[in-house]
Amino acid sequence: MNKLTRHFIDNAWVASRATRCLDVIDPYRETRIAEVTVGDPADVDDAVAAARRALTGWRELSGKRRGAFIDAIAEELEARRTSLVELSSRNNGKPRAEADQDLADAIACYRYYAGQARALDARQGETVDTGETGLVSRRYQDPVGVAGLITPWNFPLVSSAWKLAPALAAGCTVVFKPSEVTPLPEQALAEIALEIELPPGVFNLVHGDGGNVGEALTAHPGVDKLSFTGSNAVGEAVMAAAARGTRNVSLELGGKSPILVTEDADPALAAELVLAGFAYNAGQMCSATSRLLVHASLADDLHARLDAAIAELVAGDPLDDATTLGPLVNAAQRERVEKYLATAEAEGLVPTARAPIALPEHGHFVAPRVYRDVPVTSRLWREEIFGPVLCTRTVQDDDEAVTLANDSIFGLAATVVAGDPARADALAGRLTAGNVWCNTHQVAPPGLGWGGMKGSGIGRELGRSGLDAYLETRYVTRSSAD
Ligand code: NAD
């Protein structure tokens, strides 16, 4: 068994001061595959001190030099791709093909921000046309400082890439706390930092849970910027912590996203997108489109197709290439989803399929379920379930679909499936969501942005805005006579 008793601080493997360990579980075999030592606040102190020491040297490197390091991270991830895919799949339970997609996304993200680091050099000192005569103004962008990064377990190596790559590109140094549920793939980042000879202190990793390491990191006065992805409850605590010292904060939180299907939609495409929208990664996606709003005339056909597609899912060993549905990440997550299934039963909601699909005898599996005509007052309709559960309603027209779609405390994502592209565009324009996909799968290319409106968060990751999240802007104005 792999025992992860070490943090990575100042380019050295450091024994934790604490002795408490957490089990790292293979959610398919339900076996312990590693132990992770829960860090101590003093470990966080050491990591923050190392990041602060490294800050001046790192920020003074050119973007070109920083970009070369970030490209090297991408290369090392690529070189370890097969083993990391397997590790991620075992630790998280996602099918191998999905873990491979994660790796591809992470690598693309590092490559994109390597380019952004280089582009930053070219933008420094750009003249700003203010319309004022007699004055010349220039714009510079400086790193915010030491960044504290905290990620969840559902997309290992991806959520961290979305933070680490832009932070390093901007010139920030980093203290990273990965999820205690999936520490194994993230540990590779420390190995890579050593391999590529990243300057000491630029990247530090402290293992542990929220109570010890998470809170110590968010409360630490030596951290200038907090970037958090996770649940709303914790996100609010992180924001409260950031308020002390008026520190910069980015939040990527939950969702309860809609998928709208109009009467002219291609029903086969609609079924495909609806299934992927709520069952990919066993539904453990912040952007899961778990509320279907389908035009009444297409509803029976779409439901029949969906039930047939679900019946064809293969639940099994995530490392078996035939598997299309993995287990949920752990027992706690399965129990959380099962509570929602019990709530559905108590509310008189009945799944559309006669019987759930067959599941292996072990593993934290939940069979996908579709509930039709769910009242908008139901907890299932309103709350993020984070499992393969779809709630559906029929609508009479686009206005009703938009009203229901936007009636949520969240605003992360949405999908529109419509025959007429102009109609899809018009619908997309009326949705309060950070990302809307029209007639296509959920994609998040690094050059775009990612983030939510309303309760889904603050700020955008990816794209230029993802870099700006780690930068401060400085304007310098002087007399043009100088
Ligand atoms: P979580 O909020 O329980 O934990 C997320 C991270 O925060 C973990 O690393 C955890 O150890 C840490 N943490 C817990 N308590 C903390 C505290 N008091 N202070 C500081 N850190 C603390 O979330 P989870 O269960 O790991 O992930 C699921 C949630 O993440 C879902 O709600 C999902 O919607 C959200 N999510 C959002 C996005 C997005 O981009 N919007 C992406 C992925 C996941």
As for the number of domains, it is 2
Q: Strands of the biggest beta sheet: in what spatial order?
A: 10-9-8-11-12-21
Q: Report the biggest beta sheet as strand number plus sense, adding barrel if it closes.
A: 6 strands, mixed
**Architecture of the largest domain, according to CATH?**
3-Layer(aba) Sandwich
Pick out the low-confidence regions.
Answer: none
CATH homologous superfamily label of the largest domain: Aldehyde Dehydrogenase, Chain A, domain 1
Radius of gyration: 23 Å
The coarse overall form would be: globular
> Could you name the CATH topology of the largest domain?
Aldehyde Dehydrogenase, Chain A, domain 1
Give me the oligomer status: single chain
Unique bound compounds: nicotinamide-adenine-dinucleotide
Question: What is the CATH C level class of the largest domain, in words?
Answer: Alpha Beta
The proportion of strand residues reads 15-25%
Number of helices in the DSSP assignment: 15
Query: Span between N and C termini?
Result: 68 Å
Question: Quick one: how many beta strands?
Answer: 22
Mean pLDDT over the full residue set: 97
Helix share, percent: 40-55%
* Secondary structure category: alpha/beta
Domain Aldehyde dehydrogenase: 13-476
Organism: Halomonas eurihalina
Family: Belongs to the aldehyde dehydrogenase family.
GO molecular function: aldehyde dehydrogenase (NAD+) activity
